[in-house]
Amino acid sequence: FLNVNVDHFSQLLRGHALQHVDISQRVLEYIMTATLPINTQMGPLIKQYVQSIFHSSDVNALPEALIADTVRQRTVVTPCQVLLLLYILYYNESIPSELLNEHQGKPSAAESNTIICDPLEIPIKHVLSHVETAQGYRDIYPDLLSCVANQFPYLFDVRAALVETGRRERSDESLKVYIKRMSWSSVEEALENHIDRPNEAISALNQLTKESTVELAKATNTIVRAMLPSLLCDEAGDAVRDAFSELWDMLNNVAPRELWVVTVNCLCSPDEPLKYNLNALIADPLIIFKSDVRLFRSPKMLPIFLTVLASLRTASKHNAWQRFSTTFANKDQFFNARNVTTMMFAQDSAMLQFLLEICLPQNDESIDNLDAIHLPICQFIHGIFIEDQILVKLLHFQTYDQRLLPMMVQHVPSIYITANFLAELLKQPLPEQVVFGILLAGYLFERYPLENYAVLTEKNVIRALAKLAFPPTRDGSPPTLQANSYLLEALSSTPHLANAFPHLSPAINDVLNDITQALPATSAGDFWADPVALVHEQIRTRLKEVQQIVQEQAQNKDKVNKSIM
């Protein structure tokens, strides 16, 4: 009865004629004997079979032990391996919805009963890349791609895909040119001695870029462990770093998850190569910030760090929501979607704060000489801001080091989003937040002197500065000057505001004059013994500096009106 071709068998399944028959062996036979081109009914047949597993107690799943060796092999991708991967993806994708239907969102012992639970077991990206370029998989490729995208979204990286496309084109060209090849032992030796013999190392790395994806996947651990830790040394050459980065980008499209694990372990714990596995990194992507600090001052190697960080962040968010959907999705659960969102925001804001900390100068460094480090980090932050604008507000309400405000305004185009909530930031009770908001307004509005920003400056920023200097009293009595370090910091913003909006300079100058007149007189020696007097003297000095600039803008306010530019 079951000895029919694939087309007829698929029709029987769709008609539920076999719902009380164990068809697992017959389906396995179809899969194991499949040839190219793949039968158009194989995809629907496997999908219908997976549904039968969950809906009929008579239908058994394929034995994992039986299919494991086939699906894990990394040599030649076969139709059998591709179809088994499709079966596994269908099966794992069906589990969350079936669990929710059966257990109404309550935790179940079967919630983690996925096939091949360790995500490193299956070379998914390798198989997917093969199916994309090989002939004969056209009918199952859309479903395969959809399942991988749903379950492993972090495997999709536009930059990695572009690199792989370029590699294929160069490989086709290289077939026309004969190049003397190094043996594998010579390649390993050249990589390990790249500091002393950089030219040989570059030749070895260039040769590896022309290897097949199978050979590259096998060599991933060896390549990274041989080179990455020592590439952070000052003695390593930039040409070698460039060649390694190019090869690393290719590996990121061949065996991305294996690459991330070995990269993080080499950067964080070179003496303990297996300290962190993929599950640990996905659970806590911030582990990567334990990397060797030399990495954060290496413009050539920093992009590798940011690529891994972005991938782990995506994987972590996907894993959290997947876990929630299988365990806590029922609305009666105490742990709800808002809790997951809060967790993700906390993780992302911590990540952004760590990135900004990297941008700060260390020891004798000058912040003006760190542009090569600032640019890739700011591009990364810009992408995060565009993806989720709530993080912009969260980060700026937390505040960060004021020295980084010019960098953020200059290199993060999406920083303009802060203007949407600047008025709210200036009304916060903590003086640290108010000062931060005033300084942000100065840098932002000077770069973007728009008319609506002029209104915001007049109605909110200038008033916030005046309120910071003369906070209102509870009993309604005339306010007195609070000359403290917060006011000293906020005064630095006034030249930027006057430069952005010269027609507002008189209003800014009025506030500065009020502060000057309210400052108590001090003798030349008082401020050396009295900290309060010292702050007063610093404010007086700062006032002289900024008033001159503001007054110049006030005198020229009729000649320049940047608010309508």
UniProtKB/TrEMBL annotation:
InterPro entries linked to this entry: INTS2 (IPR029321)
UniProt record, GO biological process: snRNA 3'-end processing
Coiled-coil regions listed: 536-563
Keywords assigned by UniProt, alphabetized: Coiled coil
Signal sequence residues: none
GO cellular component annotations of the record: integrator complex
A Pfam family it matches: INTS2
Entry keyword Coiled coil: yes
Keyword Magnesium: no
PANTHER family: INTEGRATOR COMPLEX SUBUNIT 2 (PTHR28608)
Protein name per UniProt: Uncharacterized protein
Source organism per UniProt: Mortierella isabellina
